[in-house]
Amino acid sequence: MISSIAQRRDGFDQWIHQINQICGAFNAQPLGSDFVGQIQEHQDGALKASFVEVCQARLYRTPLEVAAGEGGKYFAVFQLDGTAGMAQADNKVLLSAGDITLIDASRPSDFTYSENSRQLSLILPAQLVEQTLRFNQVRCGHRIAANSPIAMLSRRLILDATRQKCLTRQESEATLEAIVSLLRPAISHSEECADVHERAFRRTLSFIDQHIRSEELCPEWLAREVGISTRGLYRMFARNGLVVARYIKNRRLDLCAESLRQSRSEQKLSVLGYSWGFSDSSYFSTAFKSRFGISPGEYRKQHA
Fold it and tell me: CA–CA separation, 288 vs 304, rounded Å?
């Protein structure tokens, strides 16, 4: 009896250890004596996913695990078989086979598996999600119904992608971009907002994109051009959880990265940075490495 309990405990400890290695910092607890759990990692280029099979367990992240884990990502959770309960913030849903939900990895979350459940968890880089949805807030913790065209198309795409022998880096990135684009109507607050502040914010983001290559683009110049005070501009961005100067810098860096992925020329990196508003090549290189983890030159080689 003691031996079987010890074996189950060893199996549980091994399962949560693998979860932490593959998905990041999570905590867990068994919900009964019939716990079963296993995880299989799938990594191909930019695609980072895992197949999780589990029964009678709770998998969760408190602020402690969030602080210990890597930020800058979301989990798109595809319920393949069985059911699972999910909670994030004030949202609580029951996922059935075919349903999808989006989880913000920078916030606590809680999954409950009372019966046999099989999920595919796909990591979506925050910069990709937020760039695609940049005019809207990201909507997490909601159920995307299995019978919706969005769920059926995106589920088919990710399952087909995981069956491929070997995708190129560009093919895997294109797959991620396609999945985020497919899910966009369900994971963004896209409804027209009558609030005057929200409309002003969207106009300001559009104005930034129009002048993103200009060296003049800075908070003070932007405030004058859109007709508000600099202090009012800071407050507008703060209401949306953003810092205006950081948003401009990250937007430029994202567009630089896109140029590096798509360009086949060996344009000087200093010229590329200058063309997107970075007048100091050393600062451009440092900022790029801080955002993407590697230098612009290494990024270009990786995507060549």
Answer: 17
Give the tens place of pLDDT for each residue, 241-264.
788 998 999 889 988 888 888 776
The structure's pTM equals 0.64
Burial class (CB in 10 A: 0-12, 13-18, 19+), 171: middle
The CATH number of 196-302 is which of 3.40.50.1000, 1.10.10.200, 3.40.640.10, 1.10.10.60?
1.10.10.60
Task: Tell me the pLDDT tens digit for each residue of 143-189.
Answer: 999 999 999 999 999 999 999 888 888 899 999 999 999 999 899 86
Q: Is 190 within 8 Å of 107 (Cβ atoms)?
A: no
Task: State in Å, rounded, how far the first CA of the chain is from the last one.
Answer: 58
CA proximity to 102, closest of 65, 143, 54, 71? 143
In the structure encoding, which two tokens stand for residue 263, read together?
Answer: 């360009």
Structure tokens that stand for 140 in this block:
């997490």
Fold classification of 2-187 is Jelly Rolls (2.60.120)
- Count of alpha carbons within 13 angstroms of residue 145, beta-carbon side: 3
Position 201: which residue type? Answer: F
Query: For residue 83, which phi and psi values (nearest 5 degrees)?
Result: -130, 160
Contact, 292 vs 299, CB < 8 A? Answer: yes
Percent of the chain with pLDDT strictly greater than 90: 39
Identify which of 292, 200, 190 has the alpha carbon closest to the alpha carbon of residue 208: 200
Per-residue tokens: 138: 């990201």
